[in-house]
Every structure is written in structure tokens, then in C-alpha cells.
Write a structure and sequence with these properties.
alpha/beta; 7-stranded mixed sheet
């Protein structure tokens, strides 16, 4: 059975989708079978993986419409990497699922059907702590938290750890904190260096060694509908996600 990793942060602009997509590529390049589940109505992960225009049915239709998830999964241009795409319809799923029994487990049930086919399933959640993100946490074996190297980073990370703890206590789902990954790091910037130091000091054992830098290639690649590996595989951003993938494989191997 594969590892389900949910990538979450309630703030926008932390590199959440960038991390989910590029990590998935390097996991696939390492010989793993990988699925990206796009739970964000903005569908940025779907479009970056080159599947935006081809989406007629999405994860919304299996969460709320009863279509089997295996009938919605799409191949990507990257070997061994598939996507369960998103669409704007997901924005209405929160309202539609409010009265549904066990609504927090809808994605869990979907992922359970697919888990045996993949080594890793990465869930990209919207930048909020609403029902879609809650479904992502409940479906997860592990949670990864991208943390932007800026003010309030520690506060946001603390809130997310508290949310995961609430899921453990109230929904009885044992979710492991795989780690926080510091993003948009600029070693020339005193604030970036200070935030990285504080995150590692306040959350020992939770922070990945790999640090994702501010990088033009990472910023530009989605505009071309490409991952950084397709756009600039020699860039510092690409190499950082390659290191992160190796670290993720090492960390998750402890839970086999």
C-alpha cells in the first residue's frame, strides 16, 4: 500500500502547489508510481501537469457525483505520474457535502480505492482550513507543510499542527507530521535566514533539511504548463525538489 501525503497550508503563496507538483515529478523519476490529487478549485496542479484543457470530469464528480475515481484519473507527460484533476466545480462541493453523512471521509474513501496502485499519493489542498482541506487531512497518512520564509511563518505552522492534532483527537485518524519544508528562501536576506533558524529551533525534528529557494525557474514554469524539471532541470529550484524527494523517500520508509 502506498503513502498518502497531504500538502497543506491555510495561507496562499507558500509554494504549496509548486511543492506538491514538483515533488511528485522527482518521486516518479526515482522509480515510484505517483498520483497527484488536486483538491484546489483553482486547479493549478492540474494545469501545471498539462491536463487543464482536457478535464471534463474531475475529483468533484467522484466526491459528490458518485463516479468511480479510477475512471477520472489521467496520465501526464511524466512516466509513472498520474493526476486526479480538479475543476472549478470543487468550489461548490463544500456546500453540497455539508449535509452528507461522514462528509470528512469522502476523499479518504476515494483514496482508499486507489492506494494499492501507487507508491505515493500527493494531495494538494486549497489555501484554507475548510471542508476540502479537512478531507485532505483525514485521507492522509502523512502531512507536509510548506512554510514561506517570512513573518508569521511560525504562527501559521503552529496553527496547522494544532489542526492536525484536532483531527487525531476528534475524528480518530492517526495522521503523521512528515515535516515542514521551508520555501522561497533567499540566503542573502536576513529575514529568510532568521525564519529558517527559528522554524528549525521551534520545531526540531519536523523540518526537512532540503530548503526550496526563491528561483525564477520555479516561478516561470507553471506559466508554460510545465514542471520545473521540464522547464529548467538544471536550475537550483529543480535540484532542491530533487533533494526533497530523496528525503521524503527516506522519511516514509520508516513507516513501512
Amino acid at each position: 500500500m502506498g503513502h498518502v501525503i497531504t500538502v497543506i497550508n491555510q495561507k496562499g503563496g507558500t509554494g504549496k502547489t509548486t511543492s506538491a507538483v514538483n515533488l511528485s515529478v522527482y518521486l516518479a523519476q526515482a522509480g515510484k508510481r505517483v498520483l497527484v490529487v488536486d483538491m484546489d478549485p483553482q486547479a493549478n496542479a492540474t494545469s501545471t501537469l498539462g491536463n487543464g484543457a482536457a478535464v471534463t470530469t474531475s475529483v468533484y464528480h467522484t466526491l459528490a457525483g458518485g463516479i468511480l475515481p479510477e475512471d477520472i484519473v489521467q496520465k501526464t507527460a511524466v512516466p509513472s505520474l498520474d493526476v486526479l484533476p480538479a475543476s472549478q466545480d470543487l468550489a461548490g462541493a463544500t456546500i453540497e457535502l455539508v449535509s452528507v453523512k461522514n462528509r470528512e471521509y469522502r476523499l479518504h474513501d476515494v483514496v482508499t480505492r486507489l492506494k494499492g496502485q501507487y507508491d505515493y499519493i500527493l494531495i494538494d489542498c486549497p489555501p484554507s482550513l475548510g471542508l476540502l482541506t479537512l478531507n485532505g487531512i483525514v485521507a492522509a497518512d502523512h502531512v507536509m507543510i510548506p512554510v514561506q520564509c517570512e513573518y508569521y511563518a511560525l504562527e501559521g505552522l503552529g496553527q496547522l499542527l494544532h489542526t492536525v492534532e484536532m483531527v487525531r483527537n476528534n475524528l480518530g485518524k492517526n495522521v503523521n507530521i512528515l515535516g515542514a519544508v521551508c520555501t522561497m528562501y533567499d540566503k542573502r536576506n536576513r529575514l529568510s535566514r532568521a525564519v529558517l533558524k527559528e522554524v528549525r529551533r521551534n520545531f526540531p525534528g519536523y523540518v526537512f533539511d532540503a530548503v526550496i529557494p526563491r528561483n525564477v525557474a520555479l516561478a516561470e514554469a507553471p506559466g508554460y504548463g510545465q514542471t520545473v524539471n521540464q522547464f529548467r532541470p538544471d536550475s537550483v529550484g529543480a535540484l532542491a525538489y530533487q533533494r526533497l524527494a530523496k528525503e521524503v523517500i527516506q522519511r516514509t520508509s520508516r513507516f513501512l
